[in-house]
Every structure is written in C-alpha cells, then in structure tokens.
C-alpha cells in the first residue's frame, strides 16, 4: 500500500482514538435504569408492583400487573453477553414467555451476537454524534405469564434514550 494512502488512514485512526478517549461516557446506572423502566411502564398504563426480594441471583428491576394477565410481568436487567442465560430456566416460572430487549431491538430468544452487534452499531453512531441512546451493556429480559400479550406491545427503547 502506498504511503500516500497509509498516512491519512493512520492519522484518522489516531485522531479517532484521541477523540474517543476525551469523551466522557454516559453510563446507565441501575437506579436510572429502574427509573426509566418505571416511566415506560406507566406510559403504557401498567401498574408497577413493589419488588419483593425472593431471590438473590437475578433480582427483578420491576414487576407490573397488566390488564387481562393473571400474574405480573417481570422485567430483569441482564448483560448483553447473556452471562445469566444458564440461570433463566431455573429462575423463571414454567410457561412464561421471554423477550430480550436492548436499545431499539427486541428478540424472542437469546441472541448474544445480535445484541453485541446492536451495541457496536449504536456505539459507532454515538461516536460520530448520531447516537440517541446511552451506551450501556445492560439489556432487559421481559418474562410474561402464559396468555399475556401486554409486554409484546410495549416500546422498551425509552429505557436507554438520552435525556
């Protein structure tokens, strides 16, 4: 490769590194995540219930009673690498349906690669100033009781939107 092409490429990479290191990352703390989550639930007229510490492994961020559902919808924060995946079968009640929400996407099954690619996409958009979400590696597992479709109609993306 010619030095006329290589030098500008290296200069751009150096400049991008400096810019990236000087930006202060905005992190989404657990408290802010829960606050945003409760706002989303209230926008959809779901009644949030108090969290009872039943288990230590994956505590729910929120529980909400939806009209027409016998049991509450449970929303649990998870890492986008789905490190908690082996625990899900043990912790969730049988018959509950799962949805994995992260930023502007929802998956009906565990999909580590898609979640990571979504993170990369929005990290790049944020880097060039076009990002609308807080950079976070926390997604949501939404567990709905059998025959409850209320969670599938909710837009979860405001949980991560920049304010």
Characterization of this structure:
This protein has 163 residues and is an alpha+beta fold. The protein has one domain (26-159). The protein contains four helices and six strands, in the order H-H-E-E-E-H-E-E-H-E. A six-stranded antiparallel β-sheet has the order 1-2-3-6-4-5, covered by helices on one side. The chain is elongated, with a radius of gyration of 19 Å.
Task: Give the overall shape, derived from the CA principal axes.
Answer: elongated
Major sheet details: 6 strands, antiparallel
Mean pLDDT: 83
| Strand coverage percent | 15-25%
In angstroms, what separates the terminal alpha carbons? 45 Å
Number of continuous helical runs: 4
Q: Structural class given helices, strands, pairing?
A: alpha+beta
What structural keywords apply?
six-stranded antiparallel β-sheet, alpha+beta, 6 strands, 163 residues
Note the topology:
Layout: H1 3-22, H2 30-43, E1 47-49, E2 62-65, E3 73-79, H3 85-91, E4 97-102, E5 105-107, H4 112-127, E6 138-144
Antiparallel strand pairs: 1-2, 2-3, 3-6, 4-5, 4-6
Give a short overview:
The protein is an alpha+beta fold and 163 residues long.
């Amino acid at each position: 490769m010619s030095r006329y092409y290589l030098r500008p490429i290296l200069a751009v990479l150096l400049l991008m590194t400096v810019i990236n290191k000087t930006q202060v990352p905005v992190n989404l703390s657990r408290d802010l995540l829960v606050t945003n989550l409760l706002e989303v639930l209230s926008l959809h007229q779901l009644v949030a219930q108090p969290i009872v510490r039943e288990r230590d492994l994956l505590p729910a961020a929120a529980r909400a009673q939806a009209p027409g559902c016998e049991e509450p919808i449970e929303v649990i924060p998870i890492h986008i690498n789905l490190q908690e995946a082996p625990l899900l079968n043990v912790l969730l009640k049988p018959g509950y349906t799962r949805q994995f929400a992260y930023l502007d996407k929802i998956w009906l099954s565990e999909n580590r690669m898609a979640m990571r690619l979504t993170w990369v996409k929005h990290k790049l958009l944020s880097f060039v100033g076009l990002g609308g979400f807080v950079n976070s590696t926390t997604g949501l597992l939404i567990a709905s009781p059998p025959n409850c479709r209320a969670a599938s109609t909710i837009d979860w993306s405001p949980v991560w939107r920049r304010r």
